[in-house]
Every structure is written in C-alpha cells, then in structure tokens.
Amino acid sequence: MMKKILQCGLKCGVFAGVALAAAQGQTAKDAHQQVANLVEANSANWKQVSKQIWDFAELGYHENKSSALLQAQLKDAGFSIKSGVADEPTAFVASYGEGKPVIVILGEFDALPGLSQKAVPERAPVTQGGAGHGCGHNLLGSGAALAAVAVKQYMDANHVKGTLRYYGTPAEEGGSGKVYMVREGLFKDVDVVLHWHPADKNSVIDGGALAVTSAKFTFHGVAAHASMAPDRGRSALDAVMLMGNGIEFMREHVPSNTRMHYIISKGGVAPNVVPDLAQIDLMARSPSNTTLQDIWKRILDVSKGAALMTGTTVEVTDIGSDADIIGNDALAQVAQKNLEEVGGYTMSEEEQKFARDLQKTLGLDTLPSLELTKEIEPFHRPDPNAPSASTDVGDVSWVVPTIGFSTATFVPGVAAHTWQAAASAGTSIGQDGMVVASKALALTTVDLFSNPQLREAAKADFAKELAGKTYRTSIPEGQKPLIDYRGK
Amino acid sequence: MMKKILQCGLKCGVFAGVALAAAQGQTAKDAHQQVANLVEANSANWKQVSKQIWDFAELGYHENKSSALLQAQLKDAGFSIKSGVADEPTAFVASYGEGKPVIVILGEFDALPGLSQKAVPERAPVTQGGAGHGCGHNLLGSGAALAAVAVKQYMDANHVKGTLRYYGTPAEEGGSGKVYMVREGLFKDVDVVLHWHPADKNSVIDGGALAVTSAKFTFHGVAAHASMAPDRGRSALDAVMLMGNGIEFMREHVPSNTRMHYIISKGGVAPNVVPDLAQIDLMARSPSNTTLQDIWKRILDVSKGAALMTGTTVEVTDIGSDADIIGNDALAQVAQKNLEEVGGYTMSEEEQKFARDLQKTLGLDTLPSLELTKEIEPFHRPDPNAPSASTDVGDVSWVVPTIGFSTATFVPGVAAHTWQAAASAGTSIGQDGMVVASKALALTTVDLFSNPQLREAAKADFAKELAGKTYRTSIPEGQKPLIDYRGK
Amino acid sequence: MMKKILQCGLKCGVFAGVALAAAQGQTAKDAHQQVANLVEANSANWKQVSKQIWDFAELGYHENKSSALLQAQLKDAGFSIKSGVADEPTAFVASYGEGKPVIVILGEFDALPGLSQKAVPERAPVTQGGAGHGCGHNLLGSGAALAAVAVKQYMDANHVKGTLRYYGTPAEEGGSGKVYMVREGLFKDVDVVLHWHPADKNSVIDGGALAVTSAKFTFHGVAAHASMAPDRGRSALDAVMLMGNGIEFMREHVPSNTRMHYIISKGGVAPNVVPDLAQIDLMARSPSNTTLQDIWKRILDVSKGAALMTGTTVEVTDIGSDADIIGNDALAQVAQKNLEEVGGYTMSEEEQKFARDLQKTLGLDTLPSLELTKEIEPFHRPDPNAPSASTDVGDVSWVVPTIGFSTATFVPGVAAHTWQAAASAGTSIGQDGMVVASKALALTTVDLFSNPQLREAAKADFAKELAGKTYRTSIPEGQKPLIDYRGK
Amino acid sequence: MMKKILQCGLKCGVFAGVALAAAQGQTAKDAHQQVANLVEANSANWKQVSKQIWDFAELGYHENKSSALLQAQLKDAGFSIKSGVADEPTAFVASYGEGKPVIVILGEFDALPGLSQKAVPERAPVTQGGAGHGCGHNLLGSGAALAAVAVKQYMDANHVKGTLRYYGTPAEEGGSGKVYMVREGLFKDVDVVLHWHPADKNSVIDGGALAVTSAKFTFHGVAAHASMAPDRGRSALDAVMLMGNGIEFMREHVPSNTRMHYIISKGGVAPNVVPDLAQIDLMARSPSNTTLQDIWKRILDVSKGAALMTGTTVEVTDIGSDADIIGNDALAQVAQKNLEEVGGYTMSEEEQKFARDLQKTLGLDTLPSLELTKEIEPFHRPDPNAPSASTDVGDVSWVVPTIGFSTATFVPGVAAHTWQAAASAGTSIGQDGMVVASKALALTTVDLFSNPQLREAAKADFAKELAGKTYRTSIPEGQKPLIDYRGK
Lengths: 488, 488, 488, 488
Fold this sequence. Notes:
The structure is a homotetramer. By secondary structure, the first copy, chain A, is an alpha+beta fold. Chain A has 14 helices and 13 strands. Chain A has a 7-stranded mixed beta sheet. Chain A has a 4-stranded antiparallel beta sheet with strand order 9-11-7-12. In chain A, helix 2 (14-21) packs antiparallel against helix 3 and helix 3 packs antiparallel against helix 4. Chain A is globular and about 85 Å long. Chains B and D meet through helix 7 of B and helix 7 of D.
C-alpha cells in the first residue's frame, strides 16, 4: 500500500507544484494555500492509515501496531524517530529540521474498552466486548501526522528554518501518557504546541477541560468469620463504605462544577467473612488544577479518616492525573481565523443517509442539523461551569503555549465515548472531518514558523494566564507509567 | 462403660424404657455390640469412599460424581435408590425395608471453594484456587452411609420391621439443599432424623446453630457520564451504600447475637460512569428462626428504603435460608449414652506427628490436647449467646424430631472451613473420627427401631419445643433450588 | 444625564414608545422630573420612618409596630388600607385610585434574629441576641412607600387614571409571606409589580434568586433504654442520620447550583435513651422552581426511605417555599434607563469615614471602592450558576410581570445578613441609597401608568418566559401562614 | 434460720471460719440479733429522713439539702464529719472509731431529671418537668446510714475495735462521683466496702453492671452561608454525622453486649448556615472495663477520623466513666446467708392495693407476684450477656473488696428510672425494703469487724479476680468533678 501511495506522489505532480508555488516572498494567503494543497495531496494515504488504526483498536499503552504504523509512515516521510520515550513503549518523537523555533503537533491513537463497533449505523461490535475507537483517536493520530507531513514538505520547499515535531502520545484515555512526557522534559525547548480532537462540530479549543486526578484506594483490615467472631475482624469494606460516605459529605463543600465519582472495585469475597481487602476507584475533577490539588488533599484525608475509624490501613496506588487546559487567546485568534479560512465539509448523499440512520439511534428529541459539518462555531472561551471531560493535553498546556481544534468527525449529535462515535470514526465522515483538522493545524503551524510576533504574543499570553500559578501533578515523582492500568 | 450405662439405665427414666424394649429378642447390649461390629466390618470400604469424595471435592449442587458413587454403593448394599428428588439433580433417597417406623440418616457431600488442599500438614492446594473438603462432608456422607449399611445388615439379621432411609442431601454449604427436600414433603412420614457433623471433639448436637437467611440485593439505576451529566444518573451504587448504612444503623436495634454481614459483589464498572447496577450479598443470622423472620422483613425494608432514597429499584434473588436446630432432649439423652458407649479413638504415633505439625500452623497460644479425640464432651444444651454457624439440618429439625453427633475428625484446635480441616478430612484421623460417628448413629438408629417409647418420647419433646412456634422459611415458594448459586 | 437618555430614547426601540406615550400631557422628561421631585420632597419623613422601623426590629409575622406605622403613614398620605390580608396579621394593602391599570409596589419590613446592632462601625448589639435589620428591610418597606406616596401625588396632580397599590408583605425572611398573598389571589388583577432590595451597589434585578423550599422533617420512633433494651427501640435519630446520609448521596445527582442544607434541630434528649423523636430542618434551592419541585419530591422520598429503614414514621411540617424570579426584559430595559437617569449618590466625608471604618471589619483582601454608590451596574441577566439567595418576590414574578432594583444602601463590600448591613441600614448611607430606589421605582411606575405599550410588552415578555411552565408552590394548600415559624 | 446456716457452715468452708470467729465473745447469732434490733430501733427516724430526701429530689452534685441532712443526722449519732471531699461540695466522710480494720458503707442521694412524681399509683408529678427519685437513692443514702448508725451503736456496746465509715457519695447518676473519691485516695486504707441498691427483689450484688464511659464530642468547623458559599464552610455537623456513621460501622466489630449510644446535642443553629459547631453526647458500655478501654480508644479514633474527613477539629469533654463491678465470692457467700437470715418483708393490705394499682400502669403481659418482697433470690453470678446498667460503685470495687445488696423497695415489676420507681420510693413499701437492706448491711458489717478470716478471704478473692488486670478510668487526670454536668 505504501508503494502505491509513493507512486502516486510522483505522478500526481502535486509536490512539484507545491515547490514552485512556495516562493520566499509569498503572501500568507499563498502560504496557506500551498500547505492546504499539500494536506489534500497526502490525505488519501492518511485516511487509509486512520482506518488501519481504527481496525487495530488498541488500548492505552498497548497501541503497539498503531504506534509502529505511525512511526513507519513518518519515517518514510522524512522524519527521524525516537521511540519508547518517557518509559512509555508506544510513545515516540518524530522530528524534522533543527534549531528554533520548535513547534510540536500532538498525536493520540488509543482505543476504549467495550466500544468495538463496525462502521455501520446500528450497534454491531466487531469483537464482542472488544475495544473500539469511541473517541476517534485513530483520526486524531493520523490527522495530526497528516498535518505534520504537509508542513514538513512545505518547509522543505520553502527552506523554512526551525524544528517541527510530531509527538506520538499514548494512553490519553486514563493513562495520563503526556504527563510522563512532560515530566521527562520533552516539552522544555518547545515554543508552541498544537493539537486537535474529534467532535461533532468545528471549533477552536482555547482552554477548558476539567483537571482530573484518579487513584485506587485499597484498604487492608483483618479477616474474621463474620458469624463466629466478627469482633475480631477489622473490615476493609467498612473503611470503603465510610470513605464513600465521607466523599458524599464533602460534596456540599467543594466549589461548583467539582466532580467526585467512584466505584467499589473490590467489596469483599464472601458474605460470611469480614473482608480484609476492599477497594474504591475514585476520580476527582475541577475546572482548575490548583483547586483540584486542594480537593485531592482533602480526599486523601477522607481516606485516612476512614482507615482511622475502622482500624484499617489505606494504600493509594495507580494515580492518574490530567490538568485543565490553559487557554491562549493570542493563538486562539489566529487559530479561529485559520479554521474559518479552511471551512468545514459537506457530506455526500450516502454519508447523509448513514448520518440520519445513526442519529435515529441517539434517542434525542431534536436532532442537530447535518449542516453543522459545514459550519465553524464562533469563538468563545469555555464556560467553567459547563460539563466537560478531561485530557492530558492539559498538562502540556501548563508548560508550553498550546492551542487546539475540534472538528466534526462524528455525526452531529453523537457524543464521544459511544459506539456511534466509534462507527463515525471508521467512515469517510470521520476522515473528511479529520482533513479539516489537518488543514487548520497545518495553516497555523506555518503561521507560527513564519511569524515571530505571533510566537511572542503566545508566550506573553501564556505568562499572563499562569501568573501566580504553579504547575503540579498528583502523579508521584517515582511512579512509572501504569502500562497495565486497565488490568493485565 | 456399658455396665455403667445399664446401672444408670435404671435411674434415668427414659433410657430405662429403651433398655427394656431393646431386650425383646436380645439385650440392648448385644444389639449395640452387633451393629457396632457391622460398622467395623464395613468401615474399610467406606473409608475408601470418603477418600474418593475427598478427591472429587465437588461444589454444592454439582456433586455429580460424589452423589453417583454413594448411590452406587448403597444400591450394592441393598438399598433402592430414587435420585434427583426435590428438583436437585444430586439429591437422592436410598431406602430399605417398609412400613413404620421410618428412620432417616442424613448425608452431605459438598465441598467448599478455595480450600483445595493435599492431606499434608502445611498449606498445599491440589489445585490452586480449587475446591476442598474444608468442612469434612466427604466423611459426613460416607460415615452416614456406613451407619445406614450396618443398620440395614442388622435389620436383615434380626428381622427388624420398619423403613430405614439414607437421604443424600446436596449443597449444605449455602445452597439450603435440605430446605427444598422439606418443602417437597420428603420428611412427612419420617419418625426420627439422625445426622452428624465433623468437628474437633466428640459430642451430641442437641439444638444450636444460628438460623440464617441470605440473598443478593441487586439495585438497578440509570447510567450517566459521571463527569458530563451526573445529575441524569440514578446510582445503583448509592443505593448499595445506603442499604449498607441502613443495616449498620439497624445493628443497635436487634437482639443480642443477631448477625448481619454483607459484601458488595457488584460496585460499578468504571469510575467515570454512574453505576446502573450494583449488588450487595447479605446474610442475617439469629439463634431463633422466628426472630430472624422479623429481622429479615426489616432488612427488606432497608433495601426498599435505599431504593426509594436513590430513585432506583431493588430485586432480591438467590435467597437461601436455614433454620436453627430444634433440640430434642429425649433423643439427646440416648444419643449421649450411646456416644459414651462407643467412646472416642486414639491416634497412632504417626497420626499424632501429623496432628502436632498441623497444630503448629494454627497460630494458637495454647494448643488443645490430642487426647480430645478419646473423650466425650459432657452433655449440655448450647448457649444461645455463643458464636455459632448455620446448617440446613435446622429446617429438618423443625418438621421431625432430630438428633445429631459431632465427632473428632479434625485435629484438635482445627476449625471448620479451613485448609487444616480439609487436610484432616483426607487422612486416617478424619476416617477414625468418622467411624465413631457411624457407630453412634448406628446404635441410636437400632434403639429407635426397637424402642417405641423412645420414639414417643421424642415426639412429645418435639411437640413441647415447638409449642406456639410455626416453621417458616424465607425461601419463596416458587424458587427452585439455585443450582448455580456459586456462579456458573 | 437626562439628556443622554433622551438622545438614547430615539434609538432604543421600546423606550421610544414609552417616551412618545408619556408625552400626552407633558414630556417623559418632565414627568420624571416631577415625580423625582416629589420623592425628594417626601424623603425626610420616610427616612425617619425607616429609622423607627430599624429601631423596632421585629421578626417575621410579628412586625406589629412596623406594619402599623407604615399603614398609618400611608393612610395619612391618602391611601385606603386593608389590613390582615391572607391570614397574615401584619400584611396589608394600601390602595389609591381605581380601575386599570393596576400597578403594585412591594414593601417588606421584617428583621433577622441575632443581628441586633447599633448604627456604629463596630460590633455592638442594641440588645444582646436580639433581632436587627441585617437585610435592610426597614429601608425596603419605607423606600417603597416613599415611591408610592410620590407617585400618588403625581397621579393627583396629573389626573392619571388607574390604581396604585402598596402591598405590605411580612415575613420575607423564611416566612414566605407573599406566597400566601399570591394564593389569596391578591395579584390577580395586577398588571405589573415593582420591588427593590437593599444591596451594596445599584442595579436592576431582572430575574435571578434561587427557588427555595424548606420544611421540618420530624421522625417518630419508639423509646427504649439504650443499655437495657436497645433492641426494643426504634430510633428517630437513626432516621435523621439516614435521611442526612440520603441527602448527601443525592448531591451528585442533582443539577449544578442546586443547594440542599440542613441542621438537626432535635437529636435526642439523653444518650441513654433511644430517641423516639428527632428532627431535621432542611432547605433546598435551585435556579429553577420547576427543577426544585422534582428535587423536593426526591427529598420527600429520602425522608420516607429513612423512615422505612428504621421502622419510624416521618411528618413534614412548617413548609416554606419561594420561587425563583422570572425576569422581564421589556421592563428591565426601562428600569435600567430610569435607574441610570436617577443615578447613584455621593457619600459625605463623615459617611466615608464611617464606611471606611466599617470596611475594616470585613476581613477582605481588597476593599471595594466607595465610588460604587455613585455608579449604576451595566445591565445583565443573572448567571444561573452564580451563588444567590432566595426571596418570596419570586412567587409574585410567576403570576405578574415583575421588575426590581437593588441600590447601594450598604457600605460597599458589606453582604446582607450581617451586622454590618444592619449598621448601614440605620445610617444616612442606607437612607440615601433608599431614596435612589424610591426614585427609580417612582419613575418606572409613572412610565407604566402613562405607557400602555410598555405594559403590553411586559405582558408579552412574561408570556414568553413562562411558556410551557406552570407555577407551583410546595406549600400545601391547607397550610396557614406559619405565624410562629421562628418558634414562640 | 440461723440453724440452717450453721449446719451448712460445716460444709461451706469459709463460712465455717466466719461462724467460729464471730463466736469469740458471743455467738454470731446473738451479734446478728443485737445489731438487727438496733436497726429496727433506729428505723423510724431514718424512714423519715428518706422521705425528706425524696421531697428534696436534688440532682447530682447539687444535693445540698440532702447531703446536709445526712451529715447532721450522722453527726448527731456520734460520727465525725468531713465534708466537701474530693472537690465535690456534697461528698462527705462520716467516721466512727479508729484503727484497723476499716469498713465503709456507701450512701447515694441524687435524683433524676424529669421524674418528679407524687407517691401515688398514677403519673402525677409534684413539679412538672422536675426531678424525682426514680432510682430510689433517697432510700439508698438513708438505709446505708441507718445500718452505719446501728453498727456504731453495736460497736459502742461491744467495744469493737476498728473504724466504721459512711461515705456520702454524690452524683451517681452520670456524675461518676465515686471515681473522683477513688482518685482522691479515700479508699486507700479501707478493708471492705459495702453497698446496696433499691430494686424490685431481694438479692446479693456480686459483680455485674456494665462499665461505662461517656463524653461530649464537640466539633468545630467554619461557618459559611449555606446557599451563597457552601464551599467555604467546613461543617461541624458533617463531622457529627460521620462520627455517628463510624460508630454504627463499629458495632459489628465489638464484643457482644457492648453498648454504644448517643444523641446529637448540638446540630446546627439555622439551616441556611453551615454549622461551625456541632456536638454528639456518647456513652459506651461493656461488661469489662478493660475491654471498654480498648473500645473507647477506637471511639476516639472514630471522632478523629470524622474531624479529618471534614476539615474540622474535635474536642472531647465532660468525660464520665464507671467501671464494672468486680465480684467477691468470699463476701458474697456471707452476704447471701445474712440476707437470707434477715429475710424479706410482707406488704400490708393497703400496700398491696397500692402495688396492684401501680402494676396496672406497667403494660406488662404477666405481672410478677407481690410475694417477691418476701423472698430472697438464690445466689448466682451475673450473666455477662444479660442487659444491665452501670454504677460508679464499680470503680470502688476495683480498689477494695466490695459486696452489695439489692432489696425490694420497688413494687415487683417496676424498673429503675421510671416514675413508678419514684412513686414506690416515697411510700412505706420503699421504706420497708430499705430496712431489709439496712439489716443485711449491718449483719455483714458486724461479721467483718469480728472475723479477720473473712477479711482475709475477701482480700484473697479480690487479688484472684484482678490478677493480670489494672484499674483504669477514662476520666482524665486533671478533670475536676463536673459539678454542672447536667447543664446549669
């Protein structure tokens, strides 16, 4: 398949045209046009890559085939590769060029458990209980790479100075992959980071996302026969129950839009034995990473209180943590313009039929228009009180000026982490949306290379946003990436 | 010892009648001697059977090989077999003789999960995580059958009138096998029931055991994304937590020696999803089945209250229930005398070595003497405030006069439901203890056949004990035996 | 400032209509000037009245002297009085004129327990533990009456048709006084309602406030000696504890900005007696009265669940309930203009000294400028996620188009329900702020009389806001006003 | 009756010694007769005293008139008085004689709140809500003094060597008065302590009573407006709720017959304020003071855990603590014989009528026979699993050999701490029962003075009972008697 694509590259003459058009003293408009064309020219190959990763559907830290495919493709495209960075076997850095400025595009490629799904508009797992790309990361990793390759070709053609990198970042879904990469110092020399994420509409991501910290709280007590000698037992389940109660009583006394949610992952083995082991898996979220650190300390106190109350001990392990995203209005302004310049896409009739069939499964009272894929949302800062999810892009945004895009890869009305999202991500709808993202990323990256004032403005805005704040993660210093965080 | 008993016989009221009646064709002494010899003569075979069942180590309702072996052996010995009674595939009735009186000996043969263990004095599973005879039911079923076969041969030899039955009763360990047999009416024409149970000392079982009722409480709520829309969720786990809380608040307000213990068997799947399913497995116990019925109603109210509080629904399934044992002093007096007549057994030197090695693993401050296997405990009614376990023999004792024995099949100091008990049950120690039980059962059965006054006295005592009480079980009428109560 | 408004008048749509309509006999400008002058002319007297009510400091439904004073003053000014309406001894209707339109100005005059305070900038109660005007209702009732008297004089002078009423509304602080007045039908023929509230800044109140429902949940159990026979007791305190727990578990599953808070007002009498009586006083709030009705039903279920769990019964009494305020943008636009036309006030040097001394007691890091009393907040709809309080004006706004003002009667930085607010309300600062409110109310009332289009626009906006919504109160139909809701 | 006892004396070991020793100057029979006559002779006066104290009905530590009256009477009778001992204004030591041995008789005289009651067989308080002698301590203090006075006269008459003391011990009902007297060292030189208590039957008190510890747990948090800023509050009520929950979860894991019971004495002031103060009043009991110390430590941990969980602090104050009573079989044997020698009393017809009327108010299914007042219960050690109350006599019994009596001062069927008990204690029924106690105390005291072997046997038994045990109280060393423990 690679052969065919390269052959096409040579015949289709696109590359030659790009080189010619890329004159040193060209206008920004021309530059945008040139790199957008390069995205278009490379898109067929990367749509194909996105479909392969969709088929692999590998879980966090075990994205072996997906990571290898992306690495091979980027190497073929002229990037040098460093793999297995930050103690993460599937993380990698693909690099092109040298010196300043350093611009990074982030790519993710992990799937979600239980969301295995064929590319059809009804629930139909490929593998019962298997994993699936319910968050569209097959598109994310491929689309980001498509942008990187196009920009690289543009840099080549126009002798642009500086370093372009693609970071292959594993285990976004609960593994906090990027946090270890931040800790490793991989963002120290970076000027600006770009990212994107699949969604059901086109918009700029300027901040938002909830900071999240998660852990397993394991209580250890003393087993005893629950009928013969309950007084000799110290129940780890009692501790779990009281920790749960403690969390509930905390809810009134945390800021609005805080989230604390948990399951009891180990609740005893047999009802006639006082449990000596019980476990609660808890996540806490807040619009502010700083606020979350305080809340997390209080949650730890709740767990210690529960242990003290029950004569048990508590162990906190498997800590995951993502920060909220620090917005950057200087970058956002350019990003918004570029996204509007790129525009959305129009579904084919066949795609519309698929979309309508899929929408029927959503149980919504009013269905969003399919026109949404064509439109760009007006710019607005995210409402801190709005419901939201979390991402480890957050941590990156605390150490480098960062900007991102959402594009309409899911049928309008489809939420992330659903089989409908997985289905969308395996179709041309997802791939069309992906190309919109790739172009928006590419245009903005080119702007960043060509425009030192923009980089300065981004830096200034970054400093302003973080004035008086310190980046912290709840992941303990010594903790290695939790390769088997989803169980072996 | 016999001498002493005969002397006593004159003073001791009821037993005087027994002695006189037994002397119709022969003296009671001769009868006892004869049947005791028959037990001895058959013992080698049944020790072997006990070892085979120990090897099978089959869980409740799945004792296919164990039940088949016992049936085959009893058929060979001249019993007619009816298998699969009371909707229980492994339950059976082995019958000999006809007409009144009808005397039943109970046999159990189910193993316990996780207690797989070789017959060695250190923790060594045959199969990691496998089942094992930690309650010695391999001995129980075989020893009861040994008694039945000896009595049958005695009846043959002495032309004794009446019906002798052996009931193969599955799933004593949590499956309430006998309760369904009671419900089926299998005890309707029975005059007296005899049973025994492995222990670490020799004594008569005259009442005791805690009535128990158990069930799974499954709550159904509404799932929702715990970060995006927790207000749309109705948490089944919240209901489980509140049911747990409710049970804890009940503890102060139930009679002393009530037991309520539970685990959380399903506590949610992923911490970022409001659980729509959660489950608590609960057992409640009381020295009185009548009191327990009241407590159980209150527990059901707690579960309904938890559902009401959380906007969820609750389903109560997999209900198991054993009554407490109704004592019978008329039978107990004879049983005590017979057990004293039989006497205990003396360990060989090799057995003593094994016993001492095993005792070292018990972590006890003071080790009970190995002489305990030789001794018979003085008779006493059980203390209702003493810690105790439960058995489905209880339900039988509410519908027929019932008496039982414990014999020293476990190394002194070893508790039931431990790997040490499983190890003991696979050795000649267990088998020696079993033969003590078989003899005590056989002597008492012979007394019951030969002595109508004893049967009358048993009936009168039964009526007195149950005056004003009604037998009830919490198992719902339509519920079939829970063949897969331990999961498939 | 008037000039600016008239200039604006031409551009501002609705106000243009107002201006034209007001110009029947005179220009709107003249009308405003005339009535503002009338406010000024009457202000000395009503400042005095406000101080007397401040001295009375009477609690809800017991505002006998305050209500009598206001009635006497309004009667003197030419209003006819109907007192003791809606089963509330201190409620009254003061009426002037006849026929349509009917415009109502609301007045409150109840104090708060524990906030007795002298008009000095340090904590100094007049009566230790006594009541005080910590919410400035002495100003509220007087300022509203001042506006009514001025408008009445204006109507007289200009032969304005229609009915002007002042509603004396008791027990706003937790007594839901106006809800009973709504129920009585006192607002049935009313076209528009105006109100105001003391604050530390000048702004229009267009919606906002949290709907609230409150009640006492009294559990009845069975007493028993807690040491001798706890099993015979059914603890009402257990029910209270479990109801509390149930509320805590609910918190995760209600919409953001819901509030549920409670105290335990009766928690048992002696620790050695199982409590047969226990009580929880609970309030629930939500930005939406409709949402709150659902939440309240769930809270009732929690209480029933707690009773079911504990074998107790629950009684729900002393129900109070205020709805959220339904905004009216048509009225708000005019109100904002009028408030801007009136402008704020400037503190004297002496007042500034008092204000600065008082601010020192607030423990704030940054102190708000004293210039705030001069400024008018730009118009904005309230954020439903912002923290807020509750008011029974809400219920009125569900049945009649309603608009209100806040004015700077408290020293900037001072919150309601503090001794600092009580102190402010007893000084010329409070009185100056009151006159601002009186003028804004008077101007808007005059506009409403003179401008039928404005009344129509208000009616249309009202219909739009309530489309698909139904007014409901949680106060049961048969419940009379809780005259002694604060205890006897 | 003496005859029977002497016959027994030959078989009964210790008592043989007692009998012989008592016969030094006179026969034991004569001595007993003599002192019993002295009790009889003094009884009219002390019945009168008991009635006066019944009228006073003073609460613990405030028994000013009652204590003064007893002191005056004992002084008149020839005792020297030291009052206000152990920092307790109403405690006193009345002493007669000198040197060894030292025998102490304990007297109590505090009433109970809310049990004011006339001496009539229907509920009729003297003072609504007032205190009353629902535990019969008016009889207790007077009857003990009557015994002391009679023994003193006997000693005078017979030149008995040694010291006789009466300890006036206040605040038995929850004030732990005697614990402070123990701490003060007032029992250091004492050989034997005697006591008695009103009841509805006649028996020896040889051990029993539950050890108890009680305290107020006050939590301090941070107040905040519950609607405007609940996140800034740290709720002391949450801490109370979680402490309660923690206690409930502990119940399963404490030995049988442990008691833990509590009320919430402060549960917040207004539901719209996050409570910064909340309080739980808790009592814990156990048949063993040693076990209770462990449980108390765990309860303290529960309170600390609750504080940790909620960001609050906890203060433990007002600690009361009584130990269980250490039995003394050597003394009990003699006490039993003496009580049998004294015998009960027979009610007059009028008394029987009163008794029957009172019994009708008890709501009992079967009424105990009025003959019970004539009978003496056979001796038995108390069942540790039986329900029981607590007394500060317990602490005395841990430091000196102690023995006591119950006599039938309450109408049979009447429980302590009821209005029926208060009524009984004000009639001749109570006074007749008191005289039985006085005689039993007097006989035993005389035996103790005359019989050194009995004192030695008591000492030996005391040592045996406490082998391996250490006396501890949970009352902190620096804590003074809580004079206002019932509130001011």
